[in-house]
Structures are given as C-alpha cells and as structure tokens.
Design brief:
With 399 residues, the chain is mostly helical. It is built from 14 helices and no strands. The chain has helices spanning 25-49, 59-88, 95-113, 115-118, 120-127, 130-144, 153-172, 178-210, 222-240, 245-263, 274-297, 303-330, 339-361, 364-390.
Length: 399
C-alpha cells in the first residue's frame, strides 16, 4: 500500500525525470515503431541484396522472430503497462523500473541482431529474459489491484512467452520452430479477440451516443464468450495441426462467428471517424485470417499466406490502431485521426493485403512493395507521434 501521507501523482504526470519514462506506452510504442521500420528494412536488404542477418538463426527466422517477438512484444508491453493501471486504479510502472524493463527489450533486439558475433546461445538467453519479466510485472500489478477478472489476459501473454522459449529451444536443437511461431501468433490473436471485443464496441457505443444514434453496438455477452472460446480452440488446432481437415473446418466456423461478432458492433456507422473505424477494419482481418487458415488447410493457398494475414493484418493493423488512439488519448490530444494518421492506416492495410498476395504470386516486387508500405506506415507514426511520446501531456485527458 502506498504511504497515505504521500501525495498521489496522476498517471503519466510524474514531474521528475523525462516524460518518456513516465508511462509504459511512451518508450514501448516509440521503440516498437522504430524497430518495425528497421526490421523490415533489414529484411528487404537481406532478401534482395543478401545482407547476412541473425547469424546461425538465418535471415528468414530472424525476420519471423523479430516481427512476432521483437516489434509485437514491445507494443504489447506498452499496451499492458498503460491498460493495467486503468483497470486497477494503481500508479503505472515508471522511472527506473520502466527503464529496466525497456532495456531488457532493447538488449534482446541487439542480441538477436548480433547473433553472428555473440553466438545463438547467448542471443537466445538474453532475448528470453524480457517476456517472463513482463508477464511477472503485469501479474503483480493485476493481483495487487485485485482485478482477478483481468488475469485471463495473461494467458495470451504466457502463450507468447512460451512460444518464444520454444522457438529458441527448437532452433538451438536443430528443429523447425514453426509450431512455436504459430503458438505465439495464436496468443496475439486471442488477445485481439478478448481485448478488442471489449474496447471496440465500448468506444463505438460512446461515440455513437454522442452522435445521438438510435442503434448502438451489442454489448459483450455470452455470444462473445462462446466465439472467443471456440476461436481459441480453433487456433490451438491450427498451432498443432495446421493442415488437418478438422482445423480447416473449425477455422471456417470461427471465421463466420467472428464476422457475425464484428457486424454487431456497427462499424460502418463510424466511417466519419477514422481513428475509430480503423479498429473495426483491423478486427475484420480476424475472420479473414481464419478463412485463410481454412484455405491453407484445404491446399488452396500457402501456409505462409495465413501467417501474414494474421501477423500483418490482425496483429500489425490492430497495434497501429491502438498505438495511435492510446497515444493521442494519454497525451491530451483529441481522439481524431489526422491526415497523416489516415495515410499510415491506409499504407498498413495495403501492406496487409499485398503481403499474402506476394506469397500467392511469388512476385518479389510485391513483397518489396508490402515491406515499403509497412515501413511507411510505422515511419509516419514515428514522425507524427514520436514528439507526443517524448513530451508532457498538453491538457487533461477527456476520455
């Protein structure tokens, strides 16, 4: 318990030290976006010009790892360290503790990129530190705030952590880490279904109420619980047996259920506000991803196409949507998308469609285009939102 005589510092308003270390979303959103740009730029250089990456991991596995466990884990950390204080009413992790956690993430990126010089074993050991510490930190904060219902979010985080540990163990022992990559991706998609299913209809309801709309999104109910449960089971089957007929059948059902769920949230009614509409469009990649899993299981598309619909479409687009909204809200800006932000959204959606098409066509130019669009999307985020993340709030938050 904090000292009752000590004045409580409002979240994100710590008067001591740089603003960057006052709240978790600040360093992790900025670091994640910068790494998103650098990782794809390095991957394109490796793909086109043969730039050696990742040492004995190999360029392809380095790319897959750094997208799933590098970039995405940073944004996940920024979200959790920002959302949990709102759930629990406690002060955020900040200052030295935040610097230490962020440093672990940075060390992991340096180790994985420098594996050729330090070796895969040291690189794996250093990289493996971040996610367990993040999980323990998040669990401690939720338990301290007695918000037991939010502990289920940590199941997805644990799946991602186990996926990373399994990835390293498999690579070090000379196996195929595909199952562990799928396990981690499944964890992220499950988190999108759980958290997105809460915030998207809630934000939409609030906005439509201000527009005096008569029809509002259907609130979270047993249907949502059932969809999440069945879809998670489908993801488990996909993780273990991606080419099985049962997996394909379950994925078709999960795709339909998530599509029905999305329709209930009245996304088309938000088309006048891009920063809200983007959340609905990002979630639309969830049913599309399940349908692609089904198509992959039926032999209609390559398995890597399903991976890219989920990673670029579901994970990447949702993360950019959350990063822009959370940054604007928590730094005192109005919750509306600027022209630059809208361009970033469009670039990422185009990348999410172009990347699996590149797998289907085999066109390297389309792969390069998808990479360029991804770089542009997150580069624009850094350009517009970087100054917001490094400076103090402009006014009290209004949401």
């Amino acid at each position: 318990m904090p000292d009752a005589k000590r004045p409580r510092i409002p979240r994100g308003m710590n008067p001591e030290g740089p603003a960057l270390w006052s709240y978790g979303f600040r360093p992790f959103f900025l670091g994640g976006a910068i790494w998103a740009v650098l990782t794809i730029a390095l991957w394109i250089a490796a793909l086109v010009h043969g730039l050696p990456l990742g040492g004995d991991f190999g360029a392809a596995l380095w790319h897959a790892h750094e997208m799933v466990f590098g970039f995405a884990s940073a944004v996940l950390a920024g979200f959790l360290l920002t959302a949990i204080p709102n759930w629990t009413g406690t002060l955020p992790v900040s200052g030295r503790a935040l610097i230490g956690l962020f440093s672990l993430w940075v060390l992991g990126r340096i180790a994985m990129t420098g594996a050729e010089w330090i070796g895969v074993w040291p690189a794996a050991l250093i990289d493996a530190l971040f996610l367990p510490v993040l999980l323990a930190t998040a669990a401690r904060e939720i338990v301290a705030g007695r918000k037991w219902n939010n502990l289920k979010v940590l199941i997805g985080v644990a799946a991602i952590m186990v996926g990373n540990l399994g990835f390293h163990a498999t690579v070090l022992l000379g196996g195929d880490p595909g199952i562990w990559l799928r396990a981690a991706i499944a964890g992220y998609v499950a988190l999108v279904m759980i958290i997105g299913g809460r915030i998207i209809p809630s934000f939409t309801r609030n906005w439509l109420s201000r527009q005096n709309a008569q029809t509002l999104p259907v609130p979270f109910n047993r249907f949502d619980v059932g969809v999440i449960g069945f879809s998670t089971l489908a993801l488990i089957f996909w993780t273990i047996a991606p080419e099985a007929l049962l997996t394909a059948l379950m994925a078709v059902v999960a795709g339909g259920l998530n599509g029905a769920r999305l329709v209930r949230w009245r996304g088309l009614a938000t088309r006048a506000e891009g920063i809200l509409l983007v959340l609905h469009l990002s979630y639309a990649f969830v049913p599309l991803g399940f349908l692609t899993i089904a198509a992959s299981g039926a032999g209609l598309v390559q398995p890597v196409s399903a991976l890219h619909v989920l990673t670029v479409g579901v994970i990447g687009a949702t993360m950019l949507a959350v990063m822009t909204r959370a940054t604007r809200g928590h730094t005192g800006r109005t919750l509306t998308a600027s022209p630059l932000t809208l361009i970033a959204y469009l670039c990422l959606f185009a990348a999410a469609l172009a990347r699996p098409l590149a797998d289907l066509s085999g066109g390297v130019w389309l792969m390069e285009a998808a990479g360029g669009l991804w770089i542009l999307a997150f580069g624009l985020f850094v350009l517009e939102y970087g100054p917001m993340l490094m400076t103090r709030r402009t006014q009290p938050k209004t949401t």
